[in-house]
């Protein structure tokens, strides 16, 4: 059954209430009425409405009081004020308090229906935007950034400290480490979460177009500028702008960006008019900006302005202990998106994922898992199912066999096999721990002294 749009009519004159109720009811709306402001507040406390039509001059609680209460409690609800005593002052006050429209008696019913339709459309758009923002906030919660390693925990702690500030942030890290994900998490968990998040990749836009994209232009500013256009900074007003690959920005635009940051105002290309802004700036780069400054390719004053609070994201090879968590997360995500039962990863395949260096970092892993899920027929991902540069072909098969050797009728030397497994895993742990025995022991879940004894007994070179 289709849900009818709900409208509340408030008027102390019975014939007005009945006429409006019949008119809107016949147009297919679900209508409720109230004879006073007090009754209306009781009804609103029990049930929200998409549109409220209220007489301005009510005894006791008047139309402006109703308007303020509705906008405080139900921001998505639109209010139409009706009165037989129109004045410029009351109209201005009503619109200032957030009224959708202000109409006078006697009114044209057809025009009123048009206004109600527009008010409903706006209410639904506001409600939909609020829902989408809630979805985004859920998507970009801090705990959606996967990892338990000390390196990523340091990032979490830094994010938590700065999330409710307006400080300029520079996110540093290799390509694919999740710089935009961190920027969105900071925005959607902070005070600006209900305002725009606008991202622009400075390296993906030709230099001659980047100025217009960032700062906007007026009609006739250049060939093809057929209309005024706001730039990304204006679109992000009261919210956050994310400047990705900031290190690729041409020098002449760096100067203009510095001026925008210093003065908090922007000037469109071709215009002499400046517009005040309230924008938080988060930028990101995979380049070494200090080196770029030394080489004269990046302005030193802009670097220090952007680098007020730096966040260094570790590469995936620097937090290998998070690889299993990430792999299972992306596996679950891909299986859900492809409507497949949840798959598993064999020990050999997981070992292959853990030893791979991941030059494309987390983004590369997500793509690899998605592709592997799409191309694997069975319910378990084996080493052979992974791309050849990761699975390693026969070598991976041999390591998988070491991890889980097959017992044949000829029997197996259990002591020798266990020693080989120990030798293999200790070497892995030492490699992950960069030769530090205490860290390797921690990865293996044993004491350092136990590890040292095993290294000696197994003849492992360290």
From TrEMBL:
<protein>
    <submittedName>
        <fullName>Acetoacetate metabolism regulatory protein AtoC</fullName>
    </submittedName>
</protein>
<dbReference type="InterPro" id="IPR011006">
    <property type="entry name" value="CheY-like_superfamily"/>
</dbReference>
<keyword id="KW-0597">Phosphoprotein</keyword>
<dbReference type="InterPro" id="IPR002197">
    <property type="entry name" value="HTH_Fis"/>
</dbReference>
<keyword id="KW-0805">Transcription regulation</keyword>
<dbReference type="Pfam" id="PF25601">
    <property type="entry name" value="AAA_lid_14"/>
</dbReference>
<dbReference type="InterPro" id="IPR003593">
    <property type="entry name" value="AAA+_ATPase"/>
</dbReference>
<dbReference type="Pfam" id="PF00072">
    <property type="entry name" value="Response_reg"/>
</dbReference>
<dbReference type="InterPro" id="IPR009057">
    <property type="entry name" value="Homeodomain-like_sf"/>
</dbReference>
<feature type="domain" description="Sigma-54 factor interaction">
    <location>
        <begin position="145"/>
        <end position="374"/>
    </location>
</feature>
<feature type="domain" description="Response regulatory">
    <location>
        <begin position="6"/>
        <end position="120"/>
    </location>
</feature>
<dbReference type="Pfam" id="PF00158">
    <property type="entry name" value="Sigma54_activat"/>
</dbReference>
<dbReference type="InterPro" id="IPR002078">
    <property type="entry name" value="Sigma_54_int"/>
</dbReference>
<keyword id="KW-0547">Nucleotide-binding</keyword>
<dbReference type="Pfam" id="PF02954">
    <property type="entry name" value="HTH_8"/>
</dbReference>
<dbReference type="InterPro" id="IPR025662">
    <property type="entry name" value="Sigma_54_int_dom_ATP-bd_1"/>
</dbReference>
<dbReference type="InterPro" id="IPR058031">
    <property type="entry name" value="AAA_lid_NorR"/>
</dbReference>
<feature type="modified residue" description="4-aspartylphosphate">
    <location>
        <position position="55"/>
    </location>
</feature>
<dbReference type="InterPro" id="IPR001789">
    <property type="entry name" value="Sig_transdc_resp-reg_receiver"/>
</dbReference>
<dbReference type="InterPro" id="IPR027417">
    <property type="entry name" value="P-loop_NTPase"/>
</dbReference>
<dbReference type="InterPro" id="IPR025943">
    <property type="entry name" value="Sigma_54_int_dom_ATP-bd_2"/>
</dbReference>
<keyword id="KW-0804">Transcription</keyword>
<keyword id="KW-0067">ATP-binding</keyword>
């Amino acid at each position: 059954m289709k849900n009818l749009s709900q409208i509340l009519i408030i008027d102390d004159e019975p014939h007005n209430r009945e006429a409006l109720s019949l008119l809107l009811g016949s147009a297919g709306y679900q209508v409720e009425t109230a004879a006073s402001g007090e009754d209306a507040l009781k009804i609103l406390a029990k049930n929200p409405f998409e549109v409220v039509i209220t007489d301005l001059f009510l005894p006791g609680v008047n139309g402006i009081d109703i308007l303020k209460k509705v906008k405080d409690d139900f921001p998505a609800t639109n209010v139409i004020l009706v009165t037989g005593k129109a004045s410029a002052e009351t109209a201005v006050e009503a619109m200032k308090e957030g009224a959708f429209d202000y109409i006078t008696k006697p009114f044209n019913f057809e025009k009123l229906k048009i206004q109600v339709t527009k008010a409903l459309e706006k209410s639904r758009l506001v409600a939909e935007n609020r829902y989408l923002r809630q979805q985004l906030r859920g998507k970009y919660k801090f705990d959606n950034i996967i990892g338990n390693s000390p390196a990523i925990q340091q990032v979490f702690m830094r994010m938590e400290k700065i999330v409710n500030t307006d400080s300029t942030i520079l996110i540093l890290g290799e390509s694919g480490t999740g710089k935009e994900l961190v920027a969105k998490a900071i925005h959607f968990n902070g005070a600006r979460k209900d305002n725009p998040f606008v991202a622009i990749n400075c390296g993906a836009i030709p230099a001659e177009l980047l100025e217009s994209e960032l700062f906007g232009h007026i009609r006739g500013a250049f060939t093809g500028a057929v209309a005024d256009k706001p730039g990304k900074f204006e679109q992000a007003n009261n919210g956050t702008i994310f400047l990705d690959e900031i290190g690729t920005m041409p020098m002449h635009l760096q100067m203009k960006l510095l001026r925008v940051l210093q003065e908090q105002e922007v000037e469109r290309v071709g215009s002499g008019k400046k517009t005040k802004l309230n924008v938080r700036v988060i930028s990101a780069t995979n380049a070494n900006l200090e080196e770029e400054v030394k080489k004269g390719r990046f302005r030193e004053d802009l670097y220090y302005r952007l680098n007020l609070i730096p966040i260094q994201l570790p590469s995936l090879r620097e937090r290998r202990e998070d690889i299993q968590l990430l792999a299972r997360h992306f596996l679950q995500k891909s299986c859900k998106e492809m409507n497949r039962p949840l798959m598993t990863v064999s020990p050999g395949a997981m070992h292959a994922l853990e030893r791979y260096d991941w030059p494309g970092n987390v983004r590369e892993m997500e793509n690899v898992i998605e592709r592997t899920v799409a191309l694997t027929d069975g319910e378990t991902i084996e080493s052979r199912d992974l791309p050849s540069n990761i699975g390693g072909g026969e070598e991976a098969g041999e390591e998988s066999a070491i991890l889980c050797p097959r017992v044949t009728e000829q029997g197996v030397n259990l002591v020798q096999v266990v020693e080989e497994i120990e030798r293999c895993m200790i070497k892995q742990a030492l490699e992950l721990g960069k030769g530090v025995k205490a860290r390797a022991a921690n990865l293996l879940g044993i004491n350092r002294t136990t590890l040292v004894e095993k290294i000696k007994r197994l003849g492992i070179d360290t």
